[in-house]
Amino acid sequence: MIQYRILFLSIMLSICNIPYGISQSQDLQFNTKFYDAFDRWVVFSVDENTNKASVGFIYLDEESGPTFYFEGYMDLDKPTLPLTKLLEEASIRKRLETNTSDVAVLSDAQIKNLGLAPLPEWLALYQTKKGTDGYEISRGRWFNAVGASHKAIPILQAIYQKNPHADGLEFELAFAYNATNSFYKAVVILNEAIKHDPSNFWYYRELGYAYKYLDNINEAEKMYKKGISLTKNKYQQAEMAVNMLQGYFHKMDKVKYEEWKSLLIQYAEPGVIFLEYIKLFDDNWGKHKAEGSSNPVN
How far apart are CA 50 and CA 48, in angstroms? Predict the structure, then answer.
């Protein structure tokens, strides 16, 4: 669908995370989260040696997630000059992740001075479905993926009110509630979701998580066991097992702890990080028991 050539150059690997120097004369305020700058021209970083800034546009690619399109370099010593292009015949795009540094959003005047259009022409290719439930659910999914579930909730709630069983909606809304500690809301959403689709293991995974943090360890165990039985995905099975292992560690229930330790070993493939929790919990069992569950090891 997209005709642009996409290059992931090594110089772009650091563009979202390197320190920056700020030119006060250009009023660049690096205080905006990238997920608050969709469909905006931004500055990601400033090279203190050259006083040039990396300028580009943030947009949502439904399949790949939040993306930075690198347009060129802005010379902070000569702000009215056009951007310096790195490559004329290729586009450079960088996927944005949770640890992406804050950006500076360019003003309308700065955009005009740099010879940029308010919106790039190619953006329309990525927004053909904008406004549809599917597109909005994708937005919510990517907000969840980059640790901005608080942004996902109002988007997903609006769709839930009119179409609660839209594909992927209930899981993403429940995930967002769990991520923001609204566990009761997650339970309500997931119980209704299970009535509609009782074989979806993702619902049980999230429901087990919600019950665990509501301190209902028995219901959490039921949901996790059901979720484990509905999937062959070893990683997901191991993740559910380690959550129960942690839950019984906090409860200081040695019998159940050993049961879930055996299950974790059964499901976790070699090298999976979840196995490291076994040693952590085993090594801290005596100390944790002495201090009580008010000071758990996470």
Answer: 6
